[in-house]
Write a structure and sequence with these properties.
This protein has 75 residues and is α+β, with helices and mostly antiparallel strands. It contains two helices and four strands, in the order H-H-E-E-E-E. Helix content is 21%, strand content 33%.
Length: 75
């Protein structure tokens, strides 16, 4: 992730989100910002050395946040 993008995202998102999700892009229209994030496949460090079987991810969800400059914000 480019450092300018990372710096901006740190203003809006908690650290645990940035540690577990990858920024994919922003879709903007006249009323909304859709900030796209993709979950990373990072098992907890406590599981190091243990064979982990991935069962996939949860279905996609949309979270609405506080407005930014008059635009609704969705993650």
């Amino acid at each position: 992730m480019p450092s300018a993008t990372a710096s901006l995202l740190r203003l809006f998102l908690p650290d645990f989100i940035l540690e577990n999700f990858e920024f994919k892009g922003v879709i903007e229209d006249s009323e909304t910002f859709h900030i796209e994030l993709e979950e990373l496949n990072n098992p907890p460090s406590e599981w190091d050395g243990i064979k982990v079987l991935s069962k996939g991810f949860f279905p996609q969800i949309v979270i609405q946040d506080f407005p930014i400059r008059g635009h609704k914000v969705f993650f």
